[in-house]
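Usage example:
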Amino acid sequence: MATSHSAILDVVGLQKRYADGTLAIQQITLDVREKEFASIVGPSGCGKTTLLKTICALLAPTKGHVNLHGQEVTEPPPQMILVFQDYARSLFPWLTVTGNVLFPLKRRKDLSQSEKEQLANEAIKAVALDRFPKHYPWQLSGGMQQRVAIARAIAFRPEILLLDEPFASVDALTRADLEDLTLNLRDKFGITMLLVTHDIDEAVYLSDRVFVLSAPPSTVLEAIDVPLPMPREQVTTRSLPQFLELRNHIHGLIGKKGVETAERLATDPVEAKLDLEREGEVAL
Amino acid sequence: MTEFRKKHFTRGNFSGFITPVIALCLWEIIARIEHTVYIPPVSQIFATFFHEWFSPTFHQQAVPSLYRMANGYVFATVVGITIGTLIGAYKPVYKLLDPVLQFLRATPPTAIIPVGILLIGIGDQMKIVVIAFGAMWPIVLNAADGARLVPFERLETARVFGLTKFETLWRVILPSASPMIAAGMRTGLSISLILIVVSEMIGSTDGLGYYILQAQRTFAIPEMYGGIVLLAILGYTLNMGFLQLEQRVLGWHYGATTRPV
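Running the assembly step on the lines above writes:
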């Protein structure tokens, strides 16, 4: 469905080397289309968080650039909001649910107070927290806290939501709930989603397209279309033969290259890193 | 959270009451047996206490002390929070100033009283400056630590939503640091009390410090003890009041830290 739309976000030859010399991402090129649910999946420690932070300009790339609607991104743009994995640290503990959701809207001069409240209430309702507007984050479960963080982002009405392993620190049932909630929000608010995860099944289940990353320093191994029917459903979708094919294919990709690189890094880290960097220079 | 605190508190209070009652009874008995001028019986101290402090003496001696203390403390708080938060929020400034601040904090604040007298004289101003200077350091350092230790994700969230540097400081860093700032302010409060007494003992013509020392020098022993009792009550009340206020303002913090999530 989303494939008919054009790209709104272009990531071109992005590289991030930290000040200490670590090459976190080597060269990443990908595009995200309007109203698409795209996922980036890769082995642990492949620089996924770094990639997301570089995409929304929290970090400056050492090479390459990010274009949003053809405009180069140099400061975090209001159209692109990042939801962090660690909700406990990204929410404001001194504010209630409503306070947290209103927080970014407070400074918007283009909206009246009642409009702000309406946006906040709508977002809180969309994540099914409308019974807890006056609760503080610490009075809520982990899954509910992450929903507050998502509501806060939704209320701001971004075009793109960047999700950094947002369901990694909740239990399996809550996780399934949050996954379906995210799919609903995409439909309801027409927000483009870019999710980073190390969970291959989750990526396949949620996405229209999956970008598979290699072990660090990362590159995109393959961009895979996920033609599974919508709406998705936890049990039936996950048992489709096509679903299994896709996940096995990705497992194969990550497994082969990922394991190879990890082994080389373990046995001969210096040489392996040099190798990878050399490959990177060639690729660029 | 409140249930937890209350339970803890009342239980402590109940057995905690017995100890001072026994101690005061022993004091009374020993003082009556020994009959020394220097240790008058508790009953006499309390009689003098009520006679002295429910009279114009309170206005003449206690009010000036409270006035100086309040001024110095408010000044220390405002300046301390401002400087501390700025230092903590900007890493290069922190690295530059932290060793100096640690050194200044380690200097006993009473040691600056002679400097104060030398530069300003022995008026109200000297005491206010000395209190402000002494009470400021724990506030500065705590605010700096609090501002420095704001979770990274919180600052990045502010950046993602496009907050300016000032908005981040005001709406994210300051509230994040507030529990530590409160701890610094409480230390500052007790330092203020120490400094007002010492500075009034060294150079003053009124105030509680002056009163106690004057009583001792004129062998008005029960009055001297009465003054000490008043100071103790004052210190206790201020601390309790502060804790009450802190629990109200920082309720979110106690909720988040004492209840298992």
